[in-house]
Amino acid sequence: MMTTIVEKERTTESPVRVKEHAKSVYSTNQLNLWYGSNHALKNIDLDIKEHEVTAIIGPSGCGKSTYIKTLNRMVELVPSVKTSGEILYRDRNIFDSNYSVEELRTRVGMVFQKPNPFPKSIYDNVAYGPRIHGIRNKKILNEIVEKSLRGAAIWDEVKDRLHENAYGVSGGQQQRICIARALAIEPDVILMDEPTSALDPISTLKIEELVQELKKDYSIIIVTHNMQQAARISDKTAFFLNGEVVEFDHTDTIFSNPSDKRTEDYISGRFG
Amino acid sequence: MKYIEQDLVIQRMSGRKILNLIFKVLFLFATSLALLALAILLFRIVTQGAGHLSIDFIQNFASRFPEKAGIKAALVGSLWLMAVVAPTSIILGVGSAIYLEEYAKKNKVTTFIQVNISNLAGVPSVVFGLLGLTIFVRALALGNSILAAGFTMSLLILPVIIVASQEAIRSVPAELRDASYGMGATKWQTIVRIILPAAIPGILTGSILALSRAIGETAPLIVIGVPVIIQFLPSGVMDTFTALPMQIYDWSSRPQQEFQQVAAAGIIVLMAFLLFMNSIAVFIRNKFHKRY
């Protein structure tokens, strides 16, 4: 249903814009998910384009975190999860039995709600991904670490203390190290699950600016409980409620002219 | 209206305070009693055994004559025993813990296994001795060798090591696993690079405490038929041997009064051994202290 809105727009928009944003990274078709008997996601249809920031908003328990964790199949770490429907990542169904989760997660990086660096040095944190994927060459590793830390806008702050424990820096810096760690595997998509909810306003601002930078090279899907944040940084916004997608559209449209009454109530702060 | 009358509360305060004091004294008494018992034990052993403790005591083999009796064979035997027990029990124990925590599906079968492992930790050591006698000594025809005794002791402490390792693995924060899996790491890579390094202090502390228990156990050795009077050192794991607690048990059951002092000296050596192992555990715990 929601895809039809997007498709309709695609035909009405100027051809240049269509060309820019035509490619999908993720197409979700009739996705359902159950935790045991709890129906957490209901008939989700979403089409996520590359080089865009897609924000997912909604009240607590609406399924937004579950959905983003389904995109790299991290949700399956919870026992008794069942899914139906399909999610196409670059035209391949991620639930296919011959599509290994390791392969999928090599292309799709993730940043978590709470900064979760490993109890290792900053360098070893960022080099973790390349190392598990078989890169041993010290010179290449050095380059990847520097490039990733620069990409996450934290290089200047930590370049003199790369071999100190990552727990020694502030929470905001830890979160940017975690972003650098995700960049180090050179992913195609970056999933962010409320990446600023544990951070102070200044660190939040830095991460938001970073997201704007990153979308030039990556497609970003970000879950946030902060509507202003979604309005500031995203191109498209999906509003989730009780496990369903109520509305999915351009962020400006969602925030200025929502078509569903529930979306309007939520963004105007009447509930949630 | 007010529900709490401040004046009345203060009037009745003394009763609460007395009760508080009574319990404080009671708990202090309990602690003192335990410490007192330990102090008496130590005092008796040291006064009895210190006189017999000498370089000769460490260097001599067992003897009929108390003044010539030494602990060499038992000390070396216990070291040999540890050389078998430590690798066997730690490899099997940590392996089982990793399987149960990381690989096994949580269902009725694993719950059943889990309950039984915990129960095994409480089975008397003499029962493990009988098991060792049946399987290792007789069925596998290992005789009363270091290997047979070592395997029996490993079985005895295996449940403790498994449970301690499981606790250590479980205490590794889920966020670290998520971060590793989220980058496409396999389960094995995550275990080796993230989970084990974070869990190692807990695993080693638990393992060393379990090994300390194995060093002091006597019952399984008696059941297996480990001899006491040995005048040579073992040259391999298939040789027979004797161990510290066996030697102490033998000395303390002899009629001559002098042997009581020899036994006390043996106990001092055993306790020094235990203290040494426990301090290794403390050292490891501090050195690899968790940083998250």
Structural class call of chain A reads alpha/beta
Strand content of chain A: 15-25%
Greatest chain-chain interface? Answer: A-B, 28 and 23 residues
CATH architecture of chain A: 3-Layer(aba) Sandwich
Oligomer designation: heterodimer
* The named CATH superfamily of the largest domain in chain B: MetI-like
Low-confidence stretches of chain A: 1-20
CA radius of gyration of chain B: 25 Å
Distance, first to last CA of chain B? 50 Å
What is the class of the largest domain in chain B in the CATH system?
Mainly Alpha
Shape descriptor of chain A reads globular
Q: Number of DSSP strands of chain A?
A: 10
Q: Helix coverage percent of residues of chain A?
A: 40-55%
Give the end-to-end Cα distance of chain A, rounded to a whole number of Å.
24 Å
Structure description:
The complex is a heterodimer of chains A (272) and B (292). Residues 1-20 of chain A have low confidence and may be disordered. Chain A is an alpha/beta fold. In chain A, strand 4 and strand 5 form a beta hairpin. In chain A, 40% of the residues lie in helices and 25% in strands. The two termini of chain A are 24 Å apart. A 6-stranded mixed β-sheet of chain A has the order 6-7-8-3-9-10, sandwiched between helices. In chain A, strands 2-1-4-5 form a 4-stranded antiparallel β-sheet. Chain A has one domain: Rossmann fold (3-Layer(aba) Sandwich). Chain A is globular. In chain A, helix 8 runs parallel beside helix 9 (201-214). Chain A has helices at 2-12, 15-21, 64-71, 101-107, 122-132, 138-151, 155-158, 171-183, 201-214, 227-233, 251-256, 261-267; strands at 24-35, 38-49, 53-57, 81-89, 92-93, 108-111, 189-193, 219-223, 236-241, 244-250. By secondary structure, chain B is mainly alpha-helical. Chain B folds into 2 domains: 2-52; 55-291, Orthogonal Bundle (MetI-like fold). Helices cover 75% and strands 0% of the residues of chain B. Chain B has 12 helices and no strands. Chain B has helices at 6-11, 13-49, 55-59, 72-103, 108-120, 125-139, 146-170, 174-182, 187-216, 219-224, 244-252, 257-287. Chain B is flat, with a radius of gyration of 25 Å. In chain B, 36% of the residues are buried. The A-B interface holds A 72, 74, 77, 79, 101-106, 109-110, 112, 114, 116-119, 128-129, 132-133, 165, 167, 178, 181-182, 185 and B 105-106, 173, 175-186, 189, 193-194, 197-198, 290-292.
